[in-house]
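Repro:
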Amino acid sequence: MLAHKETSPVRLLHIVGESRFGGVAGIILGLGRVAQADGWQVDVLTTDPVVQQAVRQAGLGLVDLDVIRREIRPVWDLGGLVRLSRFLRRQPYQVVHTHTSKGGFVGRLAARLAGVPVIVHTAHGFAFHEASPAHVRKVYSALEHLASRWCDRIVSVSEFHRAWAIELGICHPRQIVAIPNGIADVVRKREAGLADLRRELGARHGDLVILSMSRLASDKGQEYLIEAAAMLPQTGRRFQVVIAGEGPERERLERLAHDRGVTQRVRFLGFRQDVGDLLAASDMVVLPSLREGLSIALLEAMAAGKPIIATSIGSQREVAAHADLARLVPPADARALSEAIVRLAGDEALMARLGLTARAVYESCYTDTRMLHAYRQLYLDLLSAKFPVEVSAAVQGNSWRRAEPPQQARQSHSDLVPTSREPKRGAL
């Protein structure tokens, strides 16, 4: 016979580490809100100050534990793994959900060592891309295959990446499910008119404003957009390129813009939270990424009904296959990017049609409601497979009744670190 613990909320921990605020953080906040609506307690392990602020504002629990950093440092990473595993042993989480490549590797192993019942990893993209050298793909695929042994389910954010993971031998087809990214509808925040915002972006009357949104990192391909800007015609309608985002490559990209003589037509905006306003003020969105899981910026442009030029990487080909909603160009090809901008800018009817089609595909395939429902069902399915009676009680009564054989019973909740909405700093 099974012995029941005291009733308590289902507890879910998202592990991110020091990953900067971006599309992944937005998805986690959405997942947190849905789980909270079911009465679950949701915590997020992150050390990035911007993400921490967003977590607090969303009313989620914050775990401020420095155990996962982006760079690979084996000795430090081993220490982080040990500290995270100890923390998880002291906290009665029923579900641990890891994100990013580094967070997924360290987080999955720590959760498995700590005996967490359900472990999920979302592969928001791999640490390599389609043009990476074969030896790079083999090494990272082997690491992902190893980490796949430490979790119950892997989620890819596109069907393309699911198929690619299976092809690379990262996991068995039954272990991976595709839940394409989705976003809430974009909204405007500013009261001021769009003409004022366009002037702030450096655009003159009649200019065509090209918006690009991404973290300024080498895999986002922004250097090719800057090179393309230098190739755009100097006569006729003027082009103004605005790049929203922050990252380690900003200084190098600004130097490139200076060296190419385009500082007047390429403006760096830094980190922005008024994406809806920027989209409304732009005429076209250009996304030159070399690697993406499923670009949140692409979905935002679709939701805003903007004409889009993007690179023909796998997940973006998948989105574009729904309908004629974008113009795709080869990655790392500034000339093709420049020519596509000129052609699209010269056909206003095509721009309008692409924008309308993009909006329609967003509404039918890429809303956050669809994505969040799929994740919620995944959590419940995995919990039900291990604790069917307890999950039924949790869903019906918004609480968790953990059942275990008496001889394997763990500490009671009162023996563990108290549940609190204040940051947990891992006093181990």
